[in-house]
Amino acid sequence: MNITVIGTGYVGLVSGVCYAEIGNKVTCVDKDENKIKLLNRGGIPIYEPGLQELLMVNADAGKLTFTTDLESAVRSADLVIIAVGTPPLPSGEADLRYIEGAVREVASSIHGYTIVAVKSTVPVGTNDRVRQIIAEGTTQEFDVVSVPEFLREGSAVKDTLNPDRIVIGADNKRAADILVELHIPLTEEIVVTDIRSAEMIKYASNAFLATKISFINEIANICEKMGADVGEVAKGMGLDRRIGPAFLKAGIGYGGSCFPKDTKALIQIAGNVEYDFKLLKSVVEVNQTQRWGVIDKLYRALGSLSGRKIAIWGLAFKPGTDDVREAPAIEIIEKLIELGATPKVYDPVAMDNFRELMDHPSISWCLNEWDAVSGCDAVCLLTEWEEFCNIDLHKVEQLMARPVMVDGRNVFGAEQIKQTSIAYYPVGRPPINDKIEEIV
Ligand code: UDX
Fold it and tell me: What is the CATH number of domain 202-282?
């Protein structure tokens, strides 16, 4: 099948590469000339394990090309996939400007029967608008389908090639059958439904996962007050097949390009039809406050934070990515600066992206995890990169001015910590070597 993908962001690029990998001829289009030049040289604009290798193999095999020429790429396509961004407006609603712009251009370029599939996350009803825009711009035969994307950053290639399910929203059998055939090599779990339900499945899935995270974070906060261990609680809950173990890791809250945006958008979508989505509003609120647990624990361990050197391990919103969008690290570091502390930050891959976002003179940019903890009053582990999880804790404690660790991701076990003198503050588990009495 000849597939043209519009937009080479996370979703577009990974999908394009993976559709080529399963035997299609794919052209990826982007307006950004520099990005296209980079991709044509075999480079990738994002950090995503396995993507570059797959891109090069398929480009070399002639199955994958990159261009800024939307018109000719669309003209020769059987299927056009829209994967441009839907950033949030100040109201929380998705900004559909890029979708509408791309769809207008697509409409004037299609030639012969073409399926236009929307992969961008769009509010319920958007695909009707897409159909209307295309109808206004062409006399050619076309269908619009919704094919929401569920890939995760850091495991995007694996998720795309081995999805739990594929959702296809279509209003006629011809388009639905073509899309089913395209995805059969990936999975047999294909849900074919109406377009509005497909659009809703994407929001509802992300909102549900975000709810699981906020739920376990609140349980963690209660565990802290009661002396229980949220890790044990999550294990005990997760064995119930109706609950499942996934997304029950307590921490400092979710970040990234999807959960924060999509939860707020769904609240707004519900609001537009006069439905007050109370549960999801609380999920967002809990997530916002969860990060402040790190600051509370620093206070508990150190008293005043003014003049303190605080190491930050991890800036990305999760490991395996250089993405810092909505990362809890942003507000935590801002707060530390406001309180007069010096954050000494290190992330194995997200340093450049973070610096672009926040180049404050109080921040000390470190060369590695050791440089970050040297002479520090405390270290806060904010992203569970493997190199932090496997660290030599004795060396850490020797390098620090005060061995205090706030573990925002619960990566260390109690037994490991008890072999050191580190004052250790995890999330939803009892602290170890708590220094509070010493300071008071
Ligand atoms: C998410 C969805 O998983 C994916 O299906 C959708 O297409 C895009 O949004 P992503 O944002 O890449 O993917 O990351 P994910 O692995 O889902 O994690 C999101 C956030 O939740 C991270 O900040 C992570 O640290 C946090 N998280 C996740 C927890 O705090 N606890 C958990 O148990 C799981």
Answer: 1.10.1040.10
For ligand 1, mutation pick of 157, 165, 199, 254 (most atoms within 8 Å of CB): 254
Query: Given ligand 1 and candidates 121, 122, 152, 235, which is best to mutate, with the most ligand atoms within 8 Å of its CB?
Result: 152
Q: Fill in the amino acid letter for 376.
A: C
Nearest CA to ligand 1 atom 24: 254
CATH code of domain 2-193: 3.40.50.720
pTM: 0.94
* 354 alpha carbon – ligand 1 mean position (Å): 19
d(CA 361, ligand 1 centre) in Å? 31
Q: Give the separation between CA 315 and CA 317, rounded to whole angstroms.
A: 6
Q: What is the third-level CATH fold of 291-438?
A: Rossmann fold (3.40.50)
Cα separation, 136 vs 143, in Å, equals: 14
Q: Which of 258, 366, 376, 380 is catalytic?
A: 258
Q: Which atom of ligand 1 is nearest to the CA of 246?
A: 33
* DSSP H helices in 345-428: 351-357, 369-373, 386-389, 393-399, 414-418
pLDDT in single tens digits along all 440 residues of the chain: 999 999 999 999 999 999 999 999 999 999 999 999 999 999 999 989 999 999 999 999 999 999 999 999 999 999 999 999 998 899 888 899 999 999 999 999 999 999 999 999 899 999 999 999 999 999 999 999 999 999 999 999 999 999 999 999 999 999 999 999 999 999 999 999 999 999 999 999 999 999 999 999 999 999 999 999 999 999 999 999 999 999 999 999 999 999 999 999 999 999 999 999 999 999 999 999 999 999 999 999 999 999 999 999 999 999 999 999 999 999 999 999 999 999 999 999 999 999 999 999 999 999 999 999 999 999 999 999 999 999 999 999 999 999 999 999 999 999 999 999 999 999 999 999 986 545 43
C-alpha 148: how far from chain center: 15
Q: Tokens 């000849």, residue?
A: 2
For the chain, the residue count is 440
The encoded tokens of residue 124 equal 């319920």
Q: Where in the chain is the domain with CATH 3.40.50.720?
A: 2-193, 291-438
Q: Is 376 a catalytic residue?
A: no
